[in-house]
Amino acid sequence: MKRFGVSLEDNLLDELDDLVKKHKLPNRSQAIRYLIRRNLTTEQWETNQVVSGCIVLVYDHHKRDLLNKAVDIQHQYHHLVLSSQHVHLDHSNCLETITLKGKAKKLKELADRLIGLKGMKHGQLVMSTLG
Ligand code: NI
């Protein structure tokens, strides 16, 4: 661990302290680490690096056409899919989480295709990193 001094304008320091409070971080150092790591992850996605991610989908399983299409699409990208978990939320609704690893552009492409399917109730891509 190395220490270094940081000079910040008052308003930027206020913003940093707000971030500490908002995310319940223990101190300013942890806030700076958090921002650097978040920025690195964003850059990895923007420059099409190999990354990890997770797609969350909520849909009605009675819509068989939607279900079939979602499965077909996932098979087209099977080399990116590490795992998928299906949970029955209630009588009609299912929640699926699909964990991915691969080039960022391909992960986004897969997410867009699944989330954009007609009838999909909710879909979100969590963009993460390999560490
Ligand atoms: Ni289900």
Q: What does it look like?
A:
This protein has 131 residues and is an alpha+beta fold. The chain has helices at 10-22, 28-46, 64-76, 104-115, and strands spanning 50-60, 81-88, 93-103, 122-127. It folds into two domains: 10-46; 50-128, Alpha-Beta Plaits, CATH 3.30.70.1150. It has a four-stranded antiparallel beta sheet. Strand 2 and strand 3 (93-103) form a beta hairpin. Helix 1 crosses helix 2 (28-46). The protein starts with 9 loop residues before the first helix and ends with a strand. The protein binds nickel (II) ion. Nickel (II) ion (NI) binds at residues 61, 86, 88, 94.
Strand order of the largest sheet: 2-3-1-4
- Main beta-sheet annotation: 4 strands, antiparallel
The proportion of strand residues reads 25-35%
Number of helices: 4
Uncertain runs = none
Structural domain tally = 2
Radius of gyration: 19 Å
Number of beta strands: 4
CATH architecture of the largest domain: 2-Layer Sandwich
Could you tell me how far the N terminus lies from the C terminus, measured between alpha carbons in angstroms? 18 Å
Would you summarize the structure shown here?
The chain is α+β, with helices and mostly antiparallel strands. The chain has 2 domains: 10-46; 50-128, Alpha-Beta Plaits (2-Layer Sandwich), CATH 3.30.70. 44% of the residues lie in helices and 27% in strands.
